[in-house]
Amino acid sequence: MSKKPAFTEAAFIGSARKQGAWTVYPETAGFDILLVKNADGAQFGLEAKLLLNAKVIKQALPDYLGYHCGRTGPDYRAVLIPRGVNTDLAPLCQALGVTVIVTRVEDDPGGVFSQVFWPALPSADGWAEVNGEWHDWCPNQRCKIPDYVPDVAAGRSAPLQLTEWKVRAIKLAIILEERPVTRADFKALKLHPQRWLDPSAKWLVSTIADA
What we know:
Layout: H1 9-19, E1 22-28, E2 31-37, E3 43-48, H2 54-60, E4 76-82, H3 90-96, E5 98-103, E6 117-118, H4 127-130, H5 164-178, H6 183-189, H7 193-197
Parallel strand pairs: 3-4, 4-5
Antiparallel strand pairs: 1-2, 2-3, 5-6
């Protein structure tokens, strides 16, 4: 029985961050990794998986193929897999506009596979696009980027996600460190006070009526 490849999406994330040209958002906009190019805001939606199969390809594609598929999403879509797994479906991915990125595994320090991952990310000269390695989906609207980079691991089952609600809750907590919050604060942050003031939850305790 062959050993299952040890996959380290952290190697890809570390390499991308080291280049200084990208911001990495783990578990964002429905992707395991949302990579954003700092220079022009171009987005790369990646699914980090141990295998390349039909289920993984479906996850990398828009929910609805056809007229509405380019309405909202990243500029590029890809599947990130460890070196050594079966890539028979790679030509199908290419035909569908999904790039297959192969990344180094834990027990492979380099050798002939000196790059951490391949193919390279698109550069300013457009070389990768010309050679057919990346397909620009030309979305009408890019994915919404969170205010903060999520401090979570990418590609895990049942992942923790930094949702918009959590960001608003964090902002409310920051206000609480300085002063009591008011209904105006809830309204500005688009949070419903009833959930916070629920006696059973006891997240917050109402003291005096808002002025």
